[in-house]
């Protein structure tokens, strides 16, 4: 008879992922051991292996769940009942919320994807491409003319994502600009350009 899972099985797996994300982001995936992760969790290695068969499986799940959250937010913005700009603002705010509150997981996604086996890495790449393709659709709603140029719509999309993807490095919750304000600012800069920004309008963002 199969062993019955504990009611808090999923919660414990999530806790492992959170601890692992902090450890991997701080020390680096390759330099982190299962023993160190077990210590961080206040548990034994055998306890960890009950929930995950390997360190690679933990890394994969951190990335998979993180990117799936981005996928969910991007697709929700795309189907939102609003103007193209409103949809884009929703996207930017939601992404900033993820990056600010899950910075360790984002660091791992950017730095340690190459540590995954080929099949796992391909799945993560596929999910990331799904995010990008959804944002491309939002960009085309803002500027349908880009659809006539295969050379520009993806680079334009990546330029916007680059504005917010690296905020985990420097953005601080207790800084003078809130994450929502920065998300709106990124949209304004993206849509209107830096030189056209009105300082008085910025005070109202």
UniProtKB/TrEMBL annotation:
- Keywords for the protein's UniProt record, in alphabetical order: DNA-binding, Transcription, Transcription regulation
Tell me which Gene3D superfamilies the record gives.
Answer: Homeodomain-like, Tetracycline Repressor, domain 2
Which intervals hold domain HTH tetR-type?
10-70
Annotated region of DNA binding: 33-52
Q: What Pfam families does this protein's entry cite?
A: TetR_C_24, TetR_N
Per UniProt, what is one GO molecular function of this protein?
A: DNA-binding transcription factor activity
Q: Which domain of life is it from?
A: Bacteria
Query: InterPro entries given for it?
Result: Homeodomain-like_sf, HTH-type_TetR-like_transc_reg, HTH_TetR, KstR2_TetR_C, Tet_transcr_reg_TetR-rel_C_sf
**Alphabetical list of PROSITE patterns matching this protein:** HTH_TETR_2 (PS50977)
What name appears for this protein in its UniProt entry?
TetR family transcriptional regulator
Organism of origin is: Paremcibacter congregatus
